[in-house]
Amino acid sequence: MSFAELAAYWPFAVGLLVTGAFSGVFAGLLGIGGGAIIVPALGWALGLMGYDSDVVQHVAVATSLAIIIPTGIMSARSHYKRGAVDTQALRLWVPFIFVGTLIGGFMAGLFSGAVLRLVFGFMSIFIAANIVLPFQTRLMGHLKGSALTHRISAFVVGYISALMGTGGGSLSVPTLAAFGETMHKAVGTGAAIGVAIAIGGTIGFVISGWSASDLPPLSIGYVNLVALVIVGAMAAVCAPVGVAIAHRLDQKTLKYVFAIFLTLVGLQMIWKALF
């Protein structure tokens, strides 16, 4: 590769560093896996590099899921040590959520980039509304003793999370809380569930993107290894900054900040898909 060709990738590398920093800070600040930051930011960085809009969204979603695997394992391990993981719920959820994400990742290749943006956009707005007005608890609270409801919920959360490129915490945590888990156990169990989501979704995207064309350099299927390493490393370094900020802010304020952020990102994704 010539110096001129190498220099052309500098904007991409800078974009990845900024994406990793922001996703790490927001992951620590808001308790999310970072996918809500990584997907739109990585898509924007790849778009600036001139890649096709359909490929951009698929790579952003797939790489986001791959990044969540190591961070999710570390988070779940920490929660487990503190007794904040419900192993019984985990046994109910993991097989079905893994199948849901595997199918979602595999089927993603059948959808256009615009469809994936619409899924991300509408689900982001739904999650924001559920944060402010927790209607999920009212709708599902009476079903907490049903193993079948747990399994169906796991499959749906896994499938949607794979198409969004998130670890599913924004969907699994309120669902587990609606089923009667304490918030600490819902968050801890959600972190462990996020690992299954990320693994299944990543495998699906690798398979569905194996023969895709016009991918960024060093990609395995739709997963870009350069973004995986740079964004993942920066996110890990910057997450403690977000944690430190979070402990200085009121939790209610954080919830509203997160809801506003998700709404804005969702609207931007829908606008980009439709216009």
TrEMBL record:
Transmembrane segments: 12-43, 55-77, 89-108, 114-133, 154-179, 191-210, 222-247, 253-271
Subcellular location, record wording: Cell membrane; Membrane
Gene Ontology cellular-component terms listed: plasma membrane
Keywords: Cell membrane, Membrane, Transmembrane, Transmembrane helix
Species per Swiss-Prot/TrEMBL record: Paradevosia shaoguanensis
Pfam families for this protein: TauE (PF01925)
Family as reported in the entry's similarity comment: Belongs to the 4-toluene sulfonate uptake permease (TSUP) (TC 2.A.102) family.
Protein name, per record: Probable membrane transporter protein
Alphabetized InterPro entries for the sequence: TM_pro_TauE-like
PANTHER family in the cross-refs: MEMBRANE TRANSPORTER PROTEIN HI_0806-RELATED (PTHR43483)
Statement: the UniProt record of this protein carries the keyword Transit peptide: no
Membrane topology according to the record: Multi-pass membrane protein
